[in-house]
Write a structure and sequence with these properties.
By secondary structure, the chain is an alpha+beta fold. The chain has two domains: 171 residues, 3-Layer(aba) Sandwich (Peroxisomal Thiolase, Chain A, domain 1), CATH 3.40.47; 150 residues, Peroxisomal Thiolase, Chain A, domain 1 (3-Layer(aba) Sandwich), CATH 3.40.47.10. The chain has ten helices and 14 strands. The strands form four sheets. A five-stranded mixed β-sheet has the order 1-9-14-13-12, sandwiched between helices. Strands 2-8-7-5-6 form a five-stranded mixed β-sheet, sandwiched between helices. Strands 3-4 form a two-stranded antiparallel ribbon. Bound molecules: coenzyme A. Coenzyme A binds next to helix 2, helix 6, helix 7 and strand 13. Coenzyme A (COA) binds next to helix 2, helix 6, helix 7 and strand 13.
Amino acid sequence: MSETTSVIDVCIAGTGSYVPERILTNAELAARVDTSDEWIVTRTGIRERRIAADGEFTSHMASKAAKRALEQAGLAPEDIELIIVATITPDTPTPATACYVQQQLGAVRAVAFDISAACSGFLYAMKISKRLISDGAFTNALIIGAEKLSTVTNWEDRSTCVLFGDGAGAAVLRRSEPGEGSIVATEMGTDGSLTGLLSIPGGGSACPITGSNINEHLHTLNMQGKEVFKVAVNRMREAAEKVIARAGWKPEDIACIIPHQANLRIIDAIADRLAVPNDRVFVNLDKYGNTSAAAVAIALDEANRTGAFKRGDHIVLVVFGAGLTWAAAAVRW
Ligand code: COA
């Protein structure tokens, strides 16, 4: 599913992020399961991740990231008309985490709902809200990727527990004025035949969690890493190529690629296939691991705040996740 032009241009007016204080290092994990810092760094690029405190929920992290994005955009919570939270770790199955965020921010005018597209959720939210703004339904939107993956991680499974972390990232989208930036092209896709490669099998209507099956870890992330890896590289490359082509850009025009932060080897493979030099690819997974829907949002904020690109630059965001799902966006900053 794709789009190139719209009546009203939409820009990213501000970004924000938040990660919990607690750092969990590879060395600490090596003391719990049969792994090593060397294996984790070589196979994934991850050195540490953040873990939310017991009383710190997905909505709390989302609201902190959102406040920073609002501040940068120069908007007050009451100005916001739409809030979309992308998450697979909502505070509660219902109501949506976006409703808690609305309340915490005091964004009293905003319509608020969640979407579930795993690691692709932030860019799904970007495309949905861009369309709703360009169609005239709203003048602005707050989109947030937020996860407390530590609550759905099997801490006894070395093949997954080394990968994930907690955090949140946010962006404020609004109608752009002449001369401002624009979300130029977006792409998203899904392959539901591959649901089994990456899932949390329990906790839904198919397999409610009971006292007897909780020990089977059905409520935690389950992944066939090697298979996911291959599809991720191909689909992310294709999605990025599509938005770059639709935007009419060449690899040398791109100031910064911001990919999903799951595995450094996946990121390197994509940069290589897109012919974009590594120094123009933003990486922060060494600090945070894979924070699912939050990952690309946190990376966008850090890239923005550390000057990885400037006004007018061309940037490409590209993601991949359970579903399997993928998405990309070409943005003129
Ligand atoms: N520490 C030490 N050894 C480990 C380990 C760990 N944490 N995890 C797995 N291993 C072992 C395996 O048991 C296996 O041992 P064996 O050869 O004796 O059977 C060996 O390392 C290789 O395992 P494999 O799964 O083939 O490793 P890999 O190179 O594919 O790396 C991932 C595993 C998960 C890092 C990698 O497949 C990956 O990143 N996949 C994509 C994941 C992803 O992006 N997910 C999120 C999508 S949003």
